[in-house]
TrEMBL record:
InterPro entries registered for this protein in UniProt: aa-tRNA-synth_II/BPL/LPL, Ala-tRNA-lgiase_IIc, Ala-tRNA-ligase_IIc_anticod-bd, Ala-tRNA-synth_IIc_core, Ala-tRNA-synth_IIc_N, Ala-tRNA_ligase, Ala_tRNA_ligase_euk/bac, DHHA1_dom
Subcellular location field: Cytoplasm
Organism: Ligilactobacillus pabuli
Major location category of this protein: cytoplasm
Key words of the record: Aminoacyl-tRNA synthetase, ATP-binding, Coiled coil, Cytoplasm, Ligase, Metal-binding, Nucleotide-binding, Protein biosynthesis, RNA-binding, tRNA-binding, Zinc
Function in brief: Catalyzes the attachment of alanine to tRNA(Ala) in a two-step reaction: alanine is first activated by ATP to form Ala-AMP and then transferred to the acceptor end of tRNA(Ala). Also edits incorrectly charged Ser-tRNA(Ala) and Gly-tRNA(Ala) via its editing domain.
Domain Alanyl-transfer RNA synthetases family profile, first and last residues per copy: 4-712
CDD domains found in the cross-reference section: AlaRS_core
Family affiliation: Belongs to the class-II aminoacyl-tRNA synthetase family.
Enzyme Commission designation: 6.1.1.7
Coiled coil among keywords: yes
Protein name: Alanine--tRNA ligase
Domain of life: Bacteria
Length: 881
């Protein structure tokens, strides 16, 4: 066996399949593009859906990649097992209707065993096949696999529901008896069994069936090959590692973490080893996720990043690391992965800043979590129980980042157990909610053989002209090709067309189709790319059209020109955002319509009004500078040398178009643009907002729409000036500031009067002491403005130590109810909790609430329930005595 680094293993895989005619694809970003079914890219095939379901036919039907992926469904296993990871790389080779079993099997065996490539010992390789797939079994034997090295397994059938499916072959490497965790005669000690000796390194799926919506199977029109080799696993084989973590992908991270610890070293203590592994695993996922545009937030994929950071920090605490340290590991990740992902080191400072900010934020949250933990332990003991309930334990995990094992350790220190079943129930409920929130609208569909097989040549000429003649080549109606259509809706492909097909955020052109006499025979309402790349027109036919005849195709020029202005404006906006916010502000999507543009981009935190003004000013300066906009058609390497910006989510061919606005903006783009920035006229941002985890959205208008927007704003200002009786609109801000100052003064006076009223009422109610069991209670309805005054009364009550319990209620001006309960410290220690009391009485006023053991509050809608709530409060206190 050769001695190879992880970088060499990855590159050798890609080089091998490149030698077999495959295009090498760059790893797609972890954040899925236009796929709501996925939270993250979770496999190599996840980026191939459009090819395998036939919606797009690739230029080369042979593809290979090393795709970074994230899976967090079994995050609790990370560190406890040899091969569980949140981030991993999947080496894969794919055939989209090209080669099939014979080539896939022969090449797999060649790569694995040839002295020119991996040079693994054939005696150590074992194969599993689907019992009904005897063809695969025979081919494995033909390439040299011994019969006793091939096992049949019923579960060797890859099927994820509707769409392509088929049998598969798994390849196992025999690591030797010394690596086994089972006796050699154990029933599971065989290739494919649950053991550590035989390690699965590669899975080859022979995708040959369509799993139809009615759960039947039919042969695929075009058979596919989909393979997956986990890089981390195969590296452990070449580097003779007991687990994936003892390889060059993880050991530098583990060694660096040990430098931060209180003297702990990897390999000395199994408990500490788990923490070292979790940290090394999580920082890889964190680094790549942030580098690909995601940011820590409270939902979606942003929540996953936040959770990973917090788990890693907590495991750092277990290693004695009290200060922020994760951010220092980011450049280590970059150095390990530099050969394949140089962009990580390029963004290392930005990624480290995001991680450091989140670590600091968590250290503040951690204090609240520890307080909740202490309260939970005290409450459980006070109730005479020996087990922490699952729901609050899950809250510690979910909200504060406490791993279950950490809570179990704290509980054990107090001789308590944890309701793990209750915790798992809450965990499953959360997973179910997350799964339900993801649409399956764009999951892999059934291949459409009709469209896939249409290979009629069609040329787009819209860069040169918006009116041309073209021969009608194909008419598709209800998934059938017909020769003539008298009227109605159809899809059509012409020999050439000036109509732009929707792509890159730019909407499709619309227009009309005329016959040779100049009569309009159809209206073009939409244009999309067919699987083989042709522009496919959706048309409403008004007069009969016949395949093979020539027609005049005319684009709606006015609409097209408005789209061009907005598209060029997005390029200027993209660069302006980078100038103002930094190079991390990557485009995350766009929409170019005739009347407005929408631009999504990654950014940590909000964009300030000052920054938006600066961005808007830069774009307008470039418009007014009369900059020529030029398009260069060149090869992709030359385009990159020109400094053109490419979108990670786009796949580019050998020849690309680069659109340049002078030396200011230069991007890969196949869309339509103005000849000079001055044609845009004016640019105005109308909104900026957050739309997801670390993603912001700007909506803007140009030209006439920008002028109309500004005119509307001016009319509003003039109307305001008239209402305020100000002769000049420019004085409105000063007048508004003066009015706000007057309002503030009045509010302060009102607050002062309300405080005095509250103090006067306090003097009246402190003497109304009542007895409830063994405790003293003040339960009163007071006339104050709201919760603020109730809290002031509670502060006075506490400082004067008036009673054991305070229950206050007030009716607000809008007829709603505020309730406040406070409990003296001595009563809290005895087990009386304000939160329990407020939950008992709030329903009587039609509301709910909660709070701390010493103070809680609630709101409600039924003011007539106040007397009953106060009475019930007294009774509840009496019952607790």
């Amino acid at each position: 066996m050769k001695k190879l680094s992880s970088a060499q293993i990855r590159q050798m895989y890609l080089d091998f399949f490149k030698s077999k005619g495959h295009d090498v694809l760059k790893s797609a970003p972890l954040v899925p593009q236009d796929d709501p079914t996925l939270l993250w890219i979770n496999s190599g095939v996840a980026t191939m859906k459009k090819y395998f379901d036939g919606s797009v036919v690739p230029k080369n039907r042979r593809l290979t990649s090393s795709q970074k992926s994230i899976r967090t469904n079994d995050i609790e296993n990370v560190g406890h097992t040899a091969r569980h990871h949140t981030l991993f790389e999947m080496l894969g080779n794919f055939s989209v209707g090209d080669y099939f079993k014979e080539e896939a099997i022969a090449w797999a065996w060649e790569l694995l065993t040839s002295p020119d490539w991996y040079a693994l010992d054939p005696e150590k390789l074992f194969i599993t096949v689907y019992p009904k797939d005897q063809d695969a079994k025979k081919i494995w034997q033909q390439v040299g696999v011994k019969e006793d090295h091939i096992y049949e397994a019923e579960d060797n059938f890859w099927d994820i529901g509707q769409g392509p499916s088929g049998p598969d072959s798994e390849i196992f490497y025999d690591r030797g008896a010394a690596m086994n965790n089972l006796p050699e005669d154990d029933p599971e000690s065989y290739p494919g069994g649950e053991n550590e000796r035989y390690l699965e390194i590669w899975n080859i799926v022979f995708s040959e069936f369509n799993h139809k919506p009615d759960n039947t199977y039919e042969p695929l029109p075009h058979k596919n090959i989909d393979t997956g080799m986990g890089l981390e696993r195969v590296v452990s084989v070449f580097q003779h590692a007991k687990t994936n973590f003892e390889t060059d992908l993880f050991l530098p991270l583990i060694a660096k973490t040990a430098e931060f610890s209180d003297g702990k070293q990897y390999g000395q203590d199994p408990v500490s080893d788990v923490s070292f592994k979790v940290i090394a695993d999580h920082i890889r996922a964190i680094t790549f996720a942030i580098g690909d545009g995601a940011l820590p937030t409270n939902d979606g994929r942003g929540y996953v990043i936040r959770r990973l950071i917090r788990r890693a920090v907590m495991h750092g605490r277990k290693l004695g690391i009290e200060d922020a340290f994760l951010y220092k590991l980011v450049p280590v990740v970059g150095q390990i992965m530099e050969a394949a992902y140089p962009e990580v080191l390029e963004q290392a400072d930005y990624i480290a800043k995001v991680v450091r900010d989140e670590e600091d934020r968590f250290n503040v949250t951690l204090k609240d979590g520890m307080e909740l933990m202490d309260n939970l332990v005290q409450e459980t003991k006070a109730q005479g129980k020996d087990t922490l309930p699952g729901k609050p334990v899950f809250k510690l995990y979910d909200t504060y980042g406490f791993p279950l094992e950490l809570t179990q350790e704290y509980a054990a220190d107090s001789n308590l157990k944890v309701d793990q079943a209750g915790f798992e129930k809450e965990m499953q409920a959360q997973k179910d909610r997350a799964r339900a929130a993801r649409s399956d609208a764009k999951s892999m569909g059934v291949q459409d053989a009709l469209l896939t097989d249409i290979k009629t040549p069609s040329e787009y000429v819209g860069y040169e002209t918006l009116s041309t003649t073209g021969v009608l080549k194909d008419i598709i109606v209800k998934d059938q090709i017909i020769n003539k259509i008298p009227s109605g809706r159809a899809r059509m492909i012409f020999s050439q067309t000036p109509f732009y097909a929707e792509m890159g955020g730019q909407v499709a052109d619309t227009g009309v189709i005329k016959d040779q006499a100049g009569n309009v025979v159809a209206e073009v309402t939409d244009v999309q790319h067919a699987p083989n790349g042709q522009n496919m027109h959706t048309v409403e036919v008004q007069a009969a059209m016949v395949s093979g005849q020539e027609y005049q195709l005319e684009v709606n020029i006015k609409r097209h020109n408005k789209v061009k202005k907005n598209h060029t404006a997005t390029h200027l906006l993209d660069q302006a955002l980078r100038d103002v916010l930094g190079s991390h502000a990557h485009q995350a999507g766009s929409l170019v319509e005739p009347t407005y543009l929408r631009f999504d981009f990654t950014n940590m935190g909000n964009v300030t009004p000052e920054q938006l003004t600066q961005v808007e000013q830069i774009v307008n300066e470039k418009i007014w500078a009369n900059i020529a906009v030029n398009t260069t058609v060149t090869d992709i390497d030359s385009a990159k040398k020109m400094g053109a910006i490419a979108l990670f989510s786009e796949k580019y061919g050998d020849v690309v178009r680069v659109v340049s606005a002078g030396d200011y903006s230069r991007e890969f783009c196949g869309g339509n643009h103005v000849d000079n920035t001055s044609e845009i006229g004016l640019f105005k941002i109308i909104s900026e907002s957050g739309i997801g985890a670390g993603t912001r959205r700007i909506e803007a208008v140009t030209a006439r729409e920008a002028f109309e927007y500004l005119e509307d704003q001016n009319q509003l200002l003039q109307t305001t000036a008239t209402e305020l009786k100000i002769p000049k609109a420019k004085n409105v801000p000063d007048k508004v500031a003066s009015l706000l100052d007057n309002v503030k003064q009045l509010e302060n006076k009102l607050q002062s009067l309300e405080d005095k009223l509250a103090s006067q009422q306090a003097a009246n109610i402190w003497g109304n002491l009542q007895t409830a069991g063994s405790r003293t209670v003040i339960a009163e309805e007071v006339k104050v403005s709201g919760m603020n005054q109730l809290r002031q009364l509670a502060d006075q009550w506490k400082s004067k130590a008036v009673s054991d319990v305070l229950i206050l209620a007030t009716q607000t001006e809008d007829g709603k109810v505020n309730l406040l309960v406070a409990v003296a410290d001595s009563s809290v220690k005895a087990g009386l909790k304000a939160g329990d009391l407020i939950k008992n009485i709030a329903p009587l006023v039609g509301g709910g609430g909660g709070g701390r053991p010493d103070m809680a509050q609630a709101g409600g809608k039924k003011a007539d329930g106040i007397p009953a709530a106060l009475k019930q409060g007294l009774q509840w206190v009496a019952d607790q005595a």
